[in-house]
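Predict structure. Chain length: 266.
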Amino acid sequence: MVVIGAAIVAVSCERGPRGPSEEQLRNRFALTLPGYVQLSSFGVQVQENIANDVEPVFKTRFVAKVRVTEDMFREERREAGVILIRRSAKSGAEYSLYGVATSVPHAGGWQVDSVLEDNPIARLGGPREIFSGRTVVLGTDEESALREEIARAARIEEERIEAKRSRINSILKRAAEAARTGDTLSEIFVLELGPGETSPIFDTSSGSYAVAWKELDGLTGLHCEFRGECFATDARAPWQRKDQLNWYFKGGGKGTRLELTVFVNR
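Prediction complete.
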């Protein structure tokens, strides 16, 4: 009995502790995959204890076959607040993943950390629903519709700006005429400028009219005297000088709303 027992102990010591099984590694690896990736197969190529029998550390080289269960998309760029995406893979596409798992005993089981040598799944992006905001798939009817939408919005904005400029130029024309005929004129109107948008150029060099304005939050900004230089009474004034007597307004980062008074007093 002693000899047999010794023989058993000797054999046991020669073999050493066993590492995690293929099934254990497969189950642990499956838990690391995103919900839209399904594990098809998992195989161990080689396993070795690189430490000692008391505190073993098992390295396991494996290969896994996976497939995506949804169409996959990558973000290409953004236009007009829309995320433009391109299909990177169709649902059902399969990929091979090669990696090494490091396993150590922990609380009667195994703590496993897997590192992939390459991860083509990460380069695919993800399903469409992972993107936050409106998305359009490039190369589809969605993109054509978006292009039409952007062009239509640009036309509307251009018409809006042109109508605004026409109104201002009409007021300035009446002011110049009033100055020529000796009449009195005073017109107040609201000027709204989008971010970076510029107004028509105001020319007070002839002295035909004067302009005063204030931002609608009550801050006085700019005043142009007859035949005089424009001056700002607030450092944040959204006006830009073209030369000494020609100037224009420019919308700030969030746009600008001004109340302007064009007047001719005799």
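Summary: Confidence is low (pLDDT under 50) at residues 1-13, 218-244.
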